[in-house]
Design brief:
303 residues; Rossmann fold; 2 domains; globular; binds 1,4-dihydronicotinamide adenine dinucleotide
């Protein structure tokens, strides 16, 4: 089986380095026309130059692929619209959006400036929302789309010093959970990748024994599969590192029931709390706001 992307147009944000570069190179090598988006700049988001995107475009072209550069930031609505305009002007449409762009401003929560919280949320969460919103009407109209959001273990399970980043990275999962439903009837599938790879963002803090196996190329294959026509899942989270992959879902414990007509007292609730947190008996929640609601007894018919 050879998965190809001929006649598909892909936008990869933050594709001038690390993971984005690997995603862009793989998609292009399988026939996709790729917008390599990257304003350049350091890991903390400071500075910028066109060289990052230009270099990856040159690499793709040298390998016989098709690509154009885009230098806008995902962190503004205008920027996101421009990124999509580059795709439409160059290639006529957008089929695939890989939301990958990211920065870090790590500090413990007590030391974190509000500006560093806002900027990280702006790039990761608002950037993903802006780019997805900008491609959404195109995908809805053509009734086809593949979107990948990039989450992180720092959001899924938390990591010291990354409260701003973790909040943003869990935010994109919330976005995905809703768009999974809103896009389903239009054949728009949206999934998340939770990567771990040796890039300039992580190289300095990575265990050398892990680092030697943690090429970004290990992450590109699941991202390309989630971006392909073959992708038959939506709303899933794939964790990827060094040739190992798992899928992650939210689970809920068995329902702890009280009389719906008589609210539990504080003491009654406290008594059942251990059962509430018994994850030995857990299952995936129903789609919707709260699975528990479907367990409630039916309302008595009005007399
Ligand atoms: P990287 O620093 O090598 O690449 C990130 C790219 O995003 C850079 O080229 C940067 O210029 C670009 N970028 C930054 N701000 C941007 C903006 N406003 N608009 C467009 N592009 C922008 O980092 P890496 O590791 O490749 O990260 C890629 C994604 O994967 C990020 O979202 C990151 O948070 C996520 N991630 C990475 C992990 C890892 O182990 N490397 C772990 C978990 C998540």
């Amino acid at each position: 089986m050879t998965i190809r992307f001929d006649n598909r147009v892909a936008i990869v944000t933050g594709a001038g380095n690390g993971l984005g570069r690997a995603h862009a190179m793989l998609l292009a090598s399988r026939g996709a026309k790729v917008v390599v988006n990257d304003p350049g700049g350091a890991v903390d988001g400071k500075g910028g130059d066109h060289a990052a995107a230009d270099k990856v475009v040159a690499e793709i072209k040298a390998a016989g692929g098709q690509a154009v550069a885009s230098y806008d930031s995902v962190a503004t609505w205008e920027g996101a619209q421009n990124i999509v305009k580059v795709a439409v002007d160059a290639f006529g449409t957008v089929d695939i959006l890989v939301n990958n762009a990211g920065i870090l401003r790590d500090k413990s929560f007590s030391k974190l400036d509000i500006a560093d919280i806002e900027l990280v949320i702006q790039v990761h969460l608002m950037g993903t929302i802006f780019c997805t919103k900008a491609v959404w009407p195109i995908m809805m109209e053509k009734k086809y789309g593949r979107i990948v959001v990039t989450t992180s273990g720092s959001g899924l399970t938390g990591n010291f010093g990354q409260s701003n980043y973790g909040a943003a990275k869990m935010g994109v999962v919330g976005l995905m959970n809703t768009l999974e439903h809103e896009g389903a009837r239009s054949n728009i599938r949206i999934n998340a990748i939770s990567p771990m790879a040796d890039t300039r963002m992580t190289g300095a803090i990575m265990d050398p024994n892990v680092q030697k196996y943690a090429s970004p190329d290990h992450i590109a294959a699941p991202v390309a599969w989630l971006s392909s026509e073959d992708c038959n899942v939506s709303g899933e989270i794939v964790c990827a590192m060094a040739g190992s992959y798992t899928a992650v879902r939210l689970y809920q414990t068995e329902t702890v029931r009280f009389d719906p007509a008589n609210p539990a007292t504080l003491d009654q609730f406290a008594e059942k709390a251990p059962a509430l947190f018994d994850f030995e008996k857990s299952a995936q929640p129903y789609a919707g706001v709260m699975g528990m609601i479907s367990h409630l007894p039916k309302a008595e018919p009005a007399a």
